[in-house]
From TrEMBL:
PANTHER family: HTH-TYPE TRANSCRIPTIONAL REPRESSOR SCO4008, TRANSCRIPTIONAL REPRESSOR. Residues 46-65 bind DNA. It comes from Devosia ginsengisoli. It comes from the Bacteria. Residues 23-83 form the HTH tetR-type domain. One of its GO terms (molecular function) is DNA binding. Residues 1-26 are annotated as: Disordered. This is TetR/AcrR family transcriptional regulator. Coiled coil: none annotated. The keyword Ligase does not apply. Keywords: DNA-binding. InterPro entries: Homeodomain-like_sf (IPR009057), HTH-type_TetR-like_transc_reg (IPR050109), HTH_TetR (IPR001647), NicS_C (IPR041474), Tet_transcr_reg_TetR-rel_C_sf (IPR036271).
Length: 228
């Protein structure tokens, strides 16, 4: 049984009762802050703006997160948590390894397409050479599961004689991430340079199929490709 979030009631200036939800308030601040950081970067995001959009105060934000950098780390942790929680809900343990890998790639492509702020925050963190991510044990712990899932799928595929030997699960994760990440990070420049809207539904559906196909062809044994 989950523990209910502690709430309290206070009186507003007009005398009406208002529910205080600290955890809900913190989550709202994190979600709004993620949009601000994604749009303006760490240096350009303003606590005043975040406070205004969350109907909180700078004092409350600093109370919860300590500093703008502390809020940024919390937003980064939340972004990675959403990815890993989504993967955990896929329920792929009982699937054949090929189907499990396909579903994982499809989820990653869809998640990144639907959460551009995640891609932008990762790009910003790379500009900072991973300085703030390195401070977070939470992010390191969260991402252990990403490699663990691929290790399990790959081991099962090897045992079934479907996947080729000698691959590193971390490198498989890298290739999946690279294809799905680039689809968002370089969409605007590709569209402008080549005069094609690669973000259109038709283009995205085509790229999604190709991404799955490329990953599968990288992992599957050559003599199994005919059945893919």
């Amino acid at each position: 049984m989950s523990t209910p979030v502690s709430t309290s009631r206070t009186k507003s200036r007009d005398g009406t009762s208002r529910v205080q939800d600290p955890e809900g308030t913190k989550q709202n601040i994190i979600e709004v802050a993620a949009q601000e950081f994604a749009l303006n970067g760490l240096s350009g995001a303003r606590i005043d703006e975040i406070a205004a959009k969350t109907r909180s105060s700078k004092r409350m934000i600093y109370y919860y997160f300590g500093s703008k950098e502390g809020l940024y780390v919390s937003a980064l942790e939340n972004a990675y948590r959403q990815v890993r929680e989504g993967e955990a809900k896929l329920d792929i343990e009982g699937l054949p390894p090929l189907d499990a890998l396909k579903r994982l790639v499809e989820f990653t492509f869809d998640h990144h397409h639907q959460h551009e702020e995640f891609i932008r925050m990762v790009m910003i963190e790379n500009i900072h050479h991973g300085e703030f991510l390195e401070r977070s044990g939470v992010i390191r712990d969260l991402n252990v599961t990403a490699i663990g899932s691929i290790e399990a799928i790959y081991a099962k595929g090897l045992a079934d004689g479907v996947f080729r030997a000698g691959l590193d699960p971390l490198e498989i994760h890298w290739q999946i991430s690279a294809l799905c990440f680039f689809n968002v990070s370089n969409r605007a420049t590709f569209s402008k340079i080549f005069g094609k809207d690669v973000g259109s539904p038709a283009y995205q559906e085509s790229l999604r199929r190709q991404t799955v196909d490329m990953v599968i062809r990288f992992v599957v044994k050559a003599d199994e490709l005919g059945g893919v």
